[in-house]
Every structure is written in structure tokens, then in C-alpha cells.
Amino acid sequence: MATPIQYPWDTPPENGTCIQVAEGVFWVRMPLPMALDHVNCYVLDDGDGWTIVDTGVDNKLTRRLWMALLDTEFAKKPVKRVIGTHHHPDHIGLAGWFQSDHGAEFVATRTTWLFARMLTIDTQSRPTAETLTFWRSAGMDPEIYEKRANERPFNFSDIVTPMPLGFTRIKEGDVIEIGRRQWDIRIGNGHSPEHATFWSRDDNLVISGDQIIPSISSNLGVYATEPMADPVAEWLESCERFLPFATEKHLCLGGHKRPFTGLPTRLRQLIDNHHGALDRLKKHLVKPQTAADCFLPLFKRNITEGEYGLALVEAIAHLNHLYLAGQVDRMKRDDGAWVYSLKG
Fold this sequence. Notes:
Strand content: 15-25%
Strand order of the largest sheet: 1-2-3-4-5-6-7
Shape: globular
Structural class: alpha/beta
Number of strands: 14
Helix content: 25-40%
Largest sheet: 7 strands, mixed
Distance between the termini: 38 Å
Radius of gyration: 21 Å
Order of helices and strands: EEEEHEHHEHHHEEEEEHEHHHEE
Mean pLDDT: 97
């Protein structure tokens, strides 16, 4: 029988405070200006300094909270290193600030650094022609399309500090010393390309970023930059590959929600969640549908305008997976939208 997921801490740390979750390992939570209103960061004692894993976004509040922590809980030593699990803004938003203002080394996978550096210099006042074509191909709601086509889109640089030229690369199979422990680096994909996770050889800690989080599933999205990507396949492969290493004793320190035990159970849940979504989607595709027509079978609830963008890219991801696996056909309508239908 699978061991249930358990949460050793009932209450997360308040903004600007920390909780010690293991010897020399501190859990910090930073606020986010979105529905998922927080990100978890971890500070590890390296003896002569601190290593921070993930940072939160770049805004005045998050900087102020970090400065308060650096002046109190972590005042006696410098921040020597910042590790980014992946390139999303809530995880590396202040990595450049820690480099430039605090002299910290930035450690990440090559893809994480390349994406982050590229996106910080890609500022747009309006969506690109490629993005508009991509939205139409997904069958985006016409009212939402018109609104978003004529407004400034979110730009990575809005909440991410410039990335200095230079970083230290980590990759699959590396071993890194953090917090007086040796950690195996295992790379996941699907939510973000070349997402780093860290598995301690010295105790039962796993730092998993957004590759493994409890109670919610990480977004698997396809974008105009790579419209035929298959993040669902990459996600499932990563979860299956991690399973042999996961034990019931592991304490998993994820990027959102609370630290938890029951890692094998959670990995199986993440796998089953997407297989279930794909099965529901195939039943829905007995009649031709665009990506925007597939929200209810995938998410089992109505999607609001604020959630629409993430829901759309995840619907495309699941349709791409079925299409590339040869399980569905698609044809393009006169308005440019792809319409998918189950084969046979």
C-alpha cells in the first residue's frame, strides 16, 4: 500500500522569516503577485557563507524581505552562491541582483541560464506576429484575443533583474556540495527545460523546485517559441526516471506549497494525473475540437480569464502529445485554428 503524503509543518514561514527544516537548511517563503501567491526558497549554511536556492521575483517587496533576512537571520555571513532550479521568474527573479549587489556566484543548468538571459533582453510593447498566429491556431476566445493583441504583454524583464554575463554550469550526473552535504543532480523536463533537482547523499533531503510539488501539478505549456514541443512526454519520462531513487523517508523541499514526505506516492500521482487527463481528452475528441475547446475535460472546472493563458498552453501540450503519438489527427480551419479529432 502506498504511503500517504504527509506534511511535517502545518504552517509555512511568514514573509521575511524562516523555518529550519534540517541541520543548516532554512525554508523561506516569498510572496508572488498572482493566484499562486508564494514561492519557496531555501537557504543552506555553507560554513563561510550562505547558498540560496531560488529567489522569488524582482520587486520592491521581495528585495525588502530579503534585505531584512540578510540583516537578521543570515547576517553573520555573506551570500556566496545562488542556485536556480529553473528559469521561471519566480525562481530566478533576483539571481542577477544577488550577483551584482552581493557578489554571489550563480549556479544553474546551461538551458536555465540561456533562457533567462535571452528573455531578460526580449522586451515587447505588443505581442509578436508569431504569438498572434499561435493564439489563433489554438482557437483562442475572440474577445480575449482582441484584448491581448492590443495590450502590452508580460515581459520577463518586468520581474527579473538583468542576468550578468557568466554562470557556473551544473548538469545531469554532477555531484555538488551544498550545506555541507553532497547532492546528486538529477535533471527533469516538461515544466521547464533542464530543470535541476538535488538529492542529498548524506541524509533524506530532496530539493525539487517545481519538478515535484505536492497537491498541485506544475504547468506543462507549449508556446510560440516551440509550437510542436511535447512537454507532457518529457514530464512523464522525468517522473518515471526519478521513481527508482525516491524513498518514503525523503523530505521533499518543493518550490511551492509545503515540504512533504511520501515522494514515491507523489511521483505516481503526477504520472497518473496526466494519463488521466489524456484519457479524458481522447474521449472529448470524438468530436473535432480546438485547444480552447478542451479546458473542461482537462481541468474538470471552468477557466477564468486570469487562468486562460496557462490553461491554453497546457491544452496545446496535451494535444501535441496525442498528435505526435499518432493518436489524433488535426486539420486547419479557415480562421487558422487547428481542429483535433480522435483517429479511427
